Amino acid sequence: MSAVILLGLVAVAAYKTKPDTPSFRKFITEESKTQSASPAKGWLNKITNAVTGVINLPDFKVTGWVKTDGTLSSSSSASSSSAHTAAQESRAEQEKEKAVRLKRDGKYAVAATTFLAAGRKYEQFGPYDAALCCEEAYKCFKQANDKSSAIDALHRSAILFNKDSRSTTRAARAYETLAENVRSTGDLTRSLEYYNTARDAFETAGDGRAKTILTNIADITLSLHNYTAARTHYETLAAESIDNSTLRFSVPKYLVNGVLCTVAEGDWVKAGKVLEGYGARYVAFGGSGEFGALKDLISAHDRFDADGFQKAYNDLNQSTLLPEQWKQVLLKVSDKLQNADVSFR
Ligand SMILES: *[C@@H]1O[C@H](CO)[C@@H](O)[C@H](O)[C@H]1NC(C)=O
Ligand SMILES: *[C@@H]1O[C@H](CO)[C@@H](O)[C@H](O)[C@H]1NC(C)=O
Ligand SMILES: *[C@@H]1O[C@H](CO)[C@@H](O)[C@H](O)[C@H]1NC(C)=O
Protein backbone atom coordinates (compact mmCIF):
# COMPACT_ATOMS: atom_id res chain seq x y z
CA MET A 1 0.00 0.00 0.00
CA SER A 2 2.75 2.44 0.93
CA ALA A 3 4.48 1.46 -2.28
CA VAL A 4 1.45 2.64 -4.21
CA ILE A 5 1.47 5.98 -2.40
CA LEU A 6 5.19 6.32 -3.04
CA LEU A 7 4.63 5.56 -6.72
CA GLY A 8 2.00 8.26 -6.79
CA LEU A 9 4.35 10.82 -5.29
CA VAL A 10 7.17 9.88 -7.63
CA ALA A 11 4.75 10.13 -10.51
CA VAL A 12 3.69 13.63 -9.55
CA ALA A 13 7.30 14.72 -9.36
CA ALA A 14 8.23 12.97 -12.58
CA TYR A 15 5.36 14.38 -14.58
CA LYS A 16 5.66 17.85 -13.26
CA THR A 17 9.11 17.80 -14.76
CA LYS A 18 8.30 15.96 -17.96
CA PRO A 19 5.26 17.60 -19.37
CA ASP A 20 5.72 16.71 -23.02
CA THR A 21 3.90 13.40 -23.32
CA PRO A 22 0.59 13.46 -25.18
CA SER A 23 -1.42 12.17 -22.24
CA PHE A 24 -0.01 14.84 -19.99
CA ARG A 25 -1.09 17.42 -22.50
CA LYS A 26 -4.54 15.89 -22.63
CA PHE A 27 -4.69 15.85 -18.86
CA ILE A 28 -3.67 19.47 -18.57
CA THR A 29 -5.90 20.73 -21.33
CA GLU A 30 -8.92 18.80 -20.15
CA GLU A 31 -8.51 19.45 -16.46
CA SER A 32 -7.79 23.14 -16.74
CA LYS A 33 -10.51 24.39 -19.05
CA THR A 34 -10.84 27.44 -16.81
CA GLN A 35 -7.51 28.57 -18.24
CA SER A 36 -8.53 29.41 -21.78
CA ALA A 37 -5.95 30.91 -24.08
CA SER A 38 -5.09 30.98 -27.75
CA PRO A 39 -4.06 27.54 -29.04
CA ALA A 40 -0.62 28.81 -30.02
CA LYS A 41 0.40 30.28 -26.71
CA GLY A 42 -1.92 28.49 -24.30
CA TRP A 43 0.07 25.30 -24.27
CA LEU A 44 3.17 26.85 -22.81
CA ASN A 45 1.14 28.85 -20.31
CA LYS A 46 -0.57 25.72 -19.16
CA ILE A 47 2.69 23.85 -18.70
CA THR A 48 4.24 26.77 -16.92
CA ASN A 49 1.22 27.07 -14.69
CA ALA A 50 1.30 23.38 -13.95
CA VAL A 51 5.00 23.30 -13.22
CA THR A 52 4.97 26.41 -11.11
CA GLY A 53 1.88 25.20 -9.33
CA VAL A 54 -0.57 27.92 -10.39
CA ILE A 55 -2.96 25.13 -11.22
CA ASN A 56 -2.85 22.58 -8.42
CA LEU A 57 -2.79 19.06 -9.74
CA PRO A 58 -5.06 16.97 -7.52
CA ASP A 59 -3.07 13.91 -6.46
CA PHE A 60 -5.77 11.30 -7.02
CA LYS A 61 -6.25 12.40 -10.61
CA VAL A 62 -2.58 12.29 -11.37
CA THR A 63 -2.34 8.79 -9.90
CA GLY A 64 -5.24 7.60 -12.02
CA TRP A 65 -3.65 9.12 -15.05
CA VAL A 66 -0.35 7.36 -14.35
CA LYS A 67 -2.14 4.04 -14.13
CA THR A 68 -3.77 4.36 -17.56
CA ASP A 69 -0.61 5.64 -19.17
CA GLY A 70 1.74 3.25 -17.41
CA THR A 71 5.00 4.98 -18.23
CA LEU A 72 7.40 6.64 -15.86
CA SER A 73 10.50 8.47 -16.95
CA SER A 74 13.57 9.69 -15.16
CA SER A 75 13.14 13.00 -13.46
CA SER A 76 15.36 15.99 -13.02
CA SER A 77 14.87 19.10 -10.97
CA ALA A 78 11.57 20.74 -11.76
CA SER A 79 12.85 24.31 -11.91
CA SER A 80 15.78 23.68 -14.26
CA SER A 81 13.57 21.66 -16.59
CA SER A 82 11.02 24.43 -16.69
CA ALA A 83 13.64 27.06 -17.48
CA HIS A 84 15.09 24.81 -20.15
CA THR A 85 11.67 24.31 -21.74
CA ALA A 86 10.80 27.98 -21.63
CA ALA A 87 14.08 28.89 -23.31
CA GLN A 88 13.51 26.32 -26.04
CA GLU A 89 9.99 27.48 -26.66
CA SER A 90 11.13 31.06 -26.78
CA ARG A 91 13.72 30.09 -29.44
CA ALA A 92 10.96 28.44 -31.46
CA GLU A 93 8.83 31.55 -31.20
CA GLN A 94 11.70 33.78 -32.25
CA GLU A 95 12.31 31.61 -35.29
CA LYS A 96 8.65 31.81 -36.21
CA GLU A 97 8.57 35.58 -35.82
CA LYS A 98 11.61 35.78 -38.08
CA ALA A 99 9.76 33.70 -40.67
CA VAL A 100 6.68 35.92 -40.40
CA ARG A 101 8.83 39.00 -41.07
CA LEU A 102 10.51 37.36 -44.07
CA LYS A 103 7.12 36.42 -45.47
CA ARG A 104 5.85 39.95 -44.98
CA ASP A 105 8.88 41.25 -46.88
CA GLY A 106 8.10 38.93 -49.76
CA LYS A 107 11.17 36.73 -49.22
CA TYR A 108 9.10 33.60 -49.63
CA ALA A 109 11.73 30.92 -50.19
CA VAL A 110 13.79 31.81 -47.13
CA ALA A 111 10.60 32.45 -45.12
CA ALA A 112 9.49 28.92 -45.98
CA THR A 113 12.68 27.27 -44.76
CA THR A 114 12.60 29.44 -41.64
CA PHE A 115 9.03 28.31 -40.92
CA LEU A 116 10.21 24.71 -41.29
CA ALA A 117 13.05 25.34 -38.83
CA ALA A 118 10.59 26.89 -36.38
CA GLY A 119 8.32 23.89 -36.87
CA ARG A 120 11.13 21.51 -35.94
CA LYS A 121 11.79 23.51 -32.77
CA TYR A 122 8.09 23.44 -31.86
CA GLU A 123 7.78 19.70 -32.36
CA GLN A 124 9.12 18.86 -28.90
CA PHE A 125 6.23 20.81 -27.36
CA GLY A 126 3.56 18.97 -29.27
CA PRO A 127 2.39 18.70 -32.86
CA TYR A 128 -0.06 21.61 -33.17
CA ASP A 129 2.22 24.65 -33.35
CA ALA A 130 4.70 22.67 -35.44
CA ALA A 131 1.91 21.80 -37.88
CA LEU A 132 0.92 25.46 -38.17
CA CYS A 133 4.52 26.37 -39.05
CA CYS A 134 4.71 23.66 -41.71
CA GLU A 135 1.44 24.89 -43.18
CA GLU A 136 2.86 28.39 -43.40
CA ALA A 137 5.97 26.94 -45.02
CA TYR A 138 3.71 25.28 -47.59
CA LYS A 139 2.08 28.62 -48.46
CA CYS A 140 5.46 30.35 -48.76
CA PHE A 141 6.93 27.61 -50.96
CA LYS A 142 3.87 27.97 -53.19
CA GLN A 143 4.45 31.70 -53.44
CA ALA A 144 8.06 30.95 -54.32
CA ASN A 145 6.84 28.54 -57.04
CA ASP A 146 8.67 25.64 -55.41
CA LYS A 147 5.95 23.08 -55.88
CA SER A 148 7.82 20.02 -54.71
CA SER A 149 9.01 21.62 -51.44
CA ALA A 150 5.48 22.96 -50.94
CA ILE A 151 4.09 19.44 -51.14
CA ASP A 152 6.71 18.14 -48.69
CA ALA A 153 5.90 20.91 -46.19
CA LEU A 154 2.16 20.30 -46.48
CA HIS A 155 2.71 16.58 -46.00
CA ARG A 156 4.66 17.27 -42.80
CA SER A 157 1.87 19.55 -41.63
CA ALA A 158 -0.78 16.91 -42.37
CA ILE A 159 1.13 14.27 -40.41
CA LEU A 160 1.53 16.63 -37.45
CA PHE A 161 -2.13 17.71 -37.42
CA ASN A 162 -3.06 14.03 -37.51
CA LYS A 163 -1.03 13.47 -34.33
CA ASP A 164 -3.09 16.07 -32.50
CA SER A 165 -6.35 14.51 -31.42
CA ARG A 166 -8.19 17.85 -31.50
CA SER A 167 -7.09 18.69 -35.05
CA THR A 168 -8.63 15.81 -36.96
CA THR A 169 -10.66 18.05 -39.28
CA ARG A 170 -7.65 20.20 -39.89
CA ALA A 171 -5.58 17.10 -40.68
CA ALA A 172 -8.30 16.01 -43.11
CA ARG A 173 -8.23 19.37 -44.86
CA ALA A 174 -4.44 19.27 -45.09
CA TYR A 175 -4.55 15.77 -46.61
CA GLU A 176 -7.25 16.89 -49.06
CA THR A 177 -5.18 19.86 -50.21
CA LEU A 178 -2.15 17.58 -50.40
CA ALA A 179 -4.12 15.15 -52.58
CA GLU A 180 -5.16 17.99 -54.93
CA ASN A 181 -1.58 19.22 -55.20
CA VAL A 182 -0.17 15.77 -55.85
CA ARG A 183 -2.95 15.04 -58.36
CA SER A 184 -1.92 18.08 -60.38
CA THR A 185 1.59 16.65 -60.66
CA GLY A 186 0.10 13.54 -62.24
CA ASP A 187 0.96 11.14 -59.43
CA LEU A 188 -2.50 9.59 -59.19
CA THR A 189 -1.54 6.68 -56.96
CA ARG A 190 -0.15 8.96 -54.29
CA SER A 191 -3.02 11.40 -54.68
CA LEU A 192 -5.50 8.57 -54.15
CA GLU A 193 -3.68 7.53 -50.99
CA TYR A 194 -3.98 11.06 -49.57
CA TYR A 195 -7.64 11.38 -50.55
CA ASN A 196 -8.31 8.12 -48.71
CA THR A 197 -6.52 9.40 -45.61
CA ALA A 198 -8.50 12.66 -45.81
CA ARG A 199 -11.74 10.76 -46.16
CA ASP A 200 -10.97 8.60 -43.11
CA ALA A 201 -10.11 11.68 -41.07
CA PHE A 202 -13.27 13.55 -42.13
CA GLU A 203 -15.25 10.45 -41.24
CA THR A 204 -13.58 10.24 -37.82
CA ALA A 205 -14.48 13.89 -37.26
CA GLY A 206 -18.07 13.24 -38.39
CA ASP A 207 -17.59 15.77 -41.19
CA GLY A 208 -19.82 15.59 -44.29
CA ARG A 209 -16.86 16.32 -46.56
CA ALA A 210 -16.04 12.60 -46.35
CA LYS A 211 -18.76 12.20 -49.00
CA THR A 212 -17.64 14.93 -51.38
CA ILE A 213 -14.13 13.47 -51.34
CA LEU A 214 -15.48 10.17 -52.58
CA THR A 215 -16.16 11.67 -56.04
CA ASN A 216 -12.44 12.40 -56.36
CA ILE A 217 -11.57 8.95 -55.08
CA ALA A 218 -13.92 7.34 -57.61
CA ASP A 219 -12.62 9.39 -60.54
CA ILE A 220 -8.97 8.69 -59.75
CA THR A 221 -9.69 5.01 -59.21
CA LEU A 222 -11.28 5.01 -62.68
CA SER A 223 -8.28 6.82 -64.19
CA LEU A 224 -6.06 4.13 -62.69
CA HIS A 225 -8.18 1.51 -64.54
CA ASN A 226 -9.22 -0.10 -61.26
CA TYR A 227 -12.72 -0.73 -62.61
CA THR A 228 -14.05 -3.04 -59.89
CA ALA A 229 -13.25 -0.60 -57.10
CA ALA A 230 -14.39 2.38 -59.19
CA ARG A 231 -17.80 0.79 -59.79
CA THR A 232 -18.25 0.20 -56.06
CA HIS A 233 -17.40 3.85 -55.40
CA TYR A 234 -19.90 5.10 -58.02
CA GLU A 235 -22.61 2.88 -56.57
CA THR A 236 -21.92 4.28 -53.11
CA LEU A 237 -22.07 7.81 -54.52
CA ALA A 238 -25.40 7.14 -56.26
CA ALA A 239 -26.90 5.66 -53.10
CA GLU A 240 -25.69 8.58 -51.00
CA SER A 241 -26.88 11.22 -53.47
CA ILE A 242 -30.35 10.03 -54.43
CA ASP A 243 -32.13 11.46 -51.38
CA ASN A 244 -30.41 14.84 -51.57
CA SER A 245 -32.03 17.37 -53.91
CA THR A 246 -28.69 19.11 -54.53
CA LEU A 247 -26.78 15.94 -55.32
CA ARG A 248 -29.51 13.98 -57.08
CA PHE A 249 -28.73 15.37 -60.53
CA SER A 250 -25.36 13.54 -60.45
CA VAL A 251 -26.90 10.11 -59.95
CA PRO A 252 -27.26 9.25 -63.70
CA LYS A 253 -23.60 10.18 -64.27
CA TYR A 254 -22.51 7.85 -61.44
CA LEU A 255 -24.66 5.01 -62.76
CA VAL A 256 -23.42 5.41 -66.35
CA ASN A 257 -19.88 5.20 -64.98
CA GLY A 258 -20.84 2.11 -62.98
CA VAL A 259 -22.14 0.30 -66.07
CA LEU A 260 -19.19 1.37 -68.22
CA CYS A 261 -16.78 0.03 -65.60
CA THR A 262 -18.24 -3.41 -66.29
CA VAL A 263 -18.00 -2.77 -70.04
CA ALA A 264 -14.34 -1.77 -69.65
CA GLU A 265 -13.69 -5.11 -67.97
CA GLY A 266 -15.08 -6.73 -71.13
CA ASP A 267 -18.04 -8.38 -69.39
CA TRP A 268 -21.02 -7.32 -71.52
CA VAL A 269 -23.40 -9.87 -70.03
CA LYS A 270 -22.72 -8.50 -66.59
CA ALA A 271 -22.99 -4.94 -67.94
CA GLY A 272 -26.56 -5.71 -69.08
CA LYS A 273 -27.44 -7.11 -65.65
CA VAL A 274 -25.86 -4.21 -63.81
CA LEU A 275 -27.80 -1.77 -66.01
CA GLU A 276 -31.12 -3.54 -65.36
CA GLY A 277 -30.34 -3.57 -61.64
CA TYR A 278 -29.74 0.19 -61.61
CA GLY A 279 -32.93 0.79 -63.61
CA ALA A 280 -34.98 -1.18 -61.10
CA ARG A 281 -33.43 0.50 -58.08
CA TYR A 282 -33.41 4.04 -59.44
CA VAL A 283 -36.74 4.39 -61.22
CA ALA A 284 -36.02 7.82 -62.72
CA PHE A 285 -32.78 6.49 -64.18
CA GLY A 286 -34.70 3.54 -65.68
CA GLY A 287 -36.68 6.02 -67.79
CA SER A 288 -33.76 8.26 -68.73
CA GLY A 289 -31.98 8.87 -72.02
CA GLU A 290 -28.76 7.53 -70.49
CA PHE A 291 -30.46 4.25 -69.63
CA GLY A 292 -31.91 3.90 -73.15
CA ALA A 293 -28.59 4.70 -74.82
CA LEU A 294 -26.70 2.19 -72.65
CA LYS A 295 -29.33 -0.48 -73.38
CA ASP A 296 -28.99 0.16 -77.13
CA LEU A 297 -25.20 0.14 -76.83
CA ILE A 298 -25.16 -3.26 -75.15
CA SER A 299 -27.66 -4.84 -77.52
CA ALA A 300 -25.87 -3.42 -80.60
CA HIS A 301 -22.64 -4.91 -79.29
CA ASP A 302 -24.33 -8.29 -78.79
CA ARG A 303 -25.68 -8.20 -82.40
CA PHE A 304 -22.28 -7.13 -83.82
CA ASP A 305 -24.14 -4.09 -85.14
CA ALA A 306 -21.43 -1.48 -85.71
CA ASP A 307 -23.79 1.23 -86.99
CA GLY A 308 -26.24 0.69 -84.13
CA PHE A 309 -23.33 0.84 -81.69
CA GLN A 310 -22.12 4.11 -83.16
CA LYS A 311 -25.61 5.60 -82.96
CA ALA A 312 -26.08 4.45 -79.34
CA TYR A 313 -22.68 5.86 -78.52
CA ASN A 314 -23.61 9.24 -80.00
CA ASP A 315 -26.87 9.22 -78.03
CA LEU A 316 -24.97 8.46 -74.83
CA ASN A 317 -22.42 11.17 -75.55
CA GLN A 318 -25.26 13.62 -75.98
CA SER A 319 -27.19 12.72 -72.88
CA THR A 320 -24.23 12.83 -70.49
CA LEU A 321 -20.76 14.30 -70.23
CA LEU A 322 -18.60 11.26 -70.87
CA PRO A 323 -15.14 11.18 -69.34
CA GLU A 324 -12.44 11.06 -72.03
CA GLN A 325 -11.51 7.59 -70.85
CA TRP A 326 -14.90 6.18 -71.89
CA LYS A 327 -14.60 7.68 -75.35
CA GLN A 328 -11.38 5.75 -75.85
CA VAL A 329 -12.79 2.50 -74.47
CA LEU A 330 -15.97 2.72 -76.57
CA LEU A 331 -14.24 3.83 -79.77
CA LYS A 332 -12.01 0.77 -79.48
CA VAL A 333 -15.09 -1.45 -79.23
CA SER A 334 -16.63 0.39 -82.16
CA ASP A 335 -13.53 -0.25 -84.29
CA LYS A 336 -13.61 -3.92 -83.36
CA LEU A 337 -17.25 -4.16 -84.40
CA GLN A 338 -16.53 -2.44 -87.72
CA ASN A 339 -13.87 -5.03 -88.47
CA ALA A 340 -16.00 -7.92 -87.24
CA ASP A 341 -18.81 -6.60 -89.41
CA VAL A 342 -16.65 -7.03 -92.52
CA SER A 343 -15.66 -10.61 -91.68
CA PHE A 344 -19.28 -11.62 -91.06
CA ARG A 345 -20.45 -10.57 -94.50
C1 LIG B 1 -8.34 -1.32 -56.55
O1 LIG B 1 -8.85 -0.54 -55.48
C2 LIG B 1 -9.12 -1.28 -54.31
C3 LIG B 1 -9.81 -0.37 -53.33
O2 LIG B 1 -9.15 0.82 -53.19
C4 LIG B 1 -7.81 -1.85 -53.78
O3 LIG B 1 -8.06 -2.61 -52.61
C5 LIG B 1 -7.20 -2.74 -54.84
O4 LIG B 1 -5.94 -3.17 -54.41
C6 LIG B 1 -7.03 -1.96 -56.14
N1 LIG B 1 -6.58 -2.89 -57.17
C7 LIG B 1 -5.57 -2.61 -57.97
C8 LIG B 1 -5.25 -3.63 -59.01
O5 LIG B 1 -4.92 -1.58 -57.86
C1 LIG C 1 -27.06 17.69 -49.60
O1 LIG C 1 -25.74 17.81 -50.07
C2 LIG C 1 -25.13 19.06 -49.83
C3 LIG C 1 -23.78 19.07 -50.52
O2 LIG C 1 -22.96 18.02 -50.06
C4 LIG C 1 -25.05 19.26 -48.33
O3 LIG C 1 -24.47 20.51 -48.07
C5 LIG C 1 -26.42 19.17 -47.73
O4 LIG C 1 -26.34 19.25 -46.32
C6 LIG C 1 -27.11 17.88 -48.11
N1 LIG C 1 -28.48 17.91 -47.65
C7 LIG C 1 -29.01 16.92 -46.95
C8 LIG C 1 -30.45 17.09 -46.61
O5 LIG C 1 -28.37 15.93 -46.62
C1 LIG D 1 -19.55 14.20 -77.81
O1 LIG D 1 -20.46 15.27 -77.74
C2 LIG D 1 -19.87 16.56 -77.78
C3 LIG D 1 -20.96 17.59 -77.63
O2 LIG D 1 -21.70 17.35 -76.49
C4 LIG D 1 -19.11 16.75 -79.09
O3 LIG D 1 -18.46 18.00 -79.08
C5 LIG D 1 -18.09 15.64 -79.21
O4 LIG D 1 -17.46 15.74 -80.47
C6 LIG D 1 -18.74 14.29 -79.08
N1 LIG D 1 -17.67 13.28 -79.06
C7 LIG D 1 -17.68 12.26 -79.88
C8 LIG D 1 -16.45 11.42 -79.81
O5 LIG D 1 -18.58 11.99 -80.61
Automatic annotation (TrEMBL):
A cellular component term from Gene Ontology for this protein is: vacuolar membrane
Q: Please, which domain of life does this record's source organism belong to?
A: Eukaryota
Residues of the signal sequence? 1-19
Pfam families in the record, alphabetically?
Answer: SNAP
What Gene Ontology molecular-function terms does this entry list?
soluble NSF attachment protein activity; syntaxin binding
List compositional bias (Low complexity) regions by residue number.
Answer: 73-83
InterPro entries to which the protein is assigned, alphabetical: NSF_attach, TPR-like_helical_dom_sf
One Gene Ontology biological process: intracellular protein transport
Keyword line = Protein transport, Signal, Transport
Keyword Transport assigned: yes
Q: Where is this region: Disordered?
A: 71-100
Specify residue ranges for compositional bias: Basic and acidic residues.
90-100
**Belongs to which family?**
Belongs to the SNAP family.
Q: What is this protein called?
A: TPR-like protein
* Organism of this sequence: Rhizophlyctis rosea
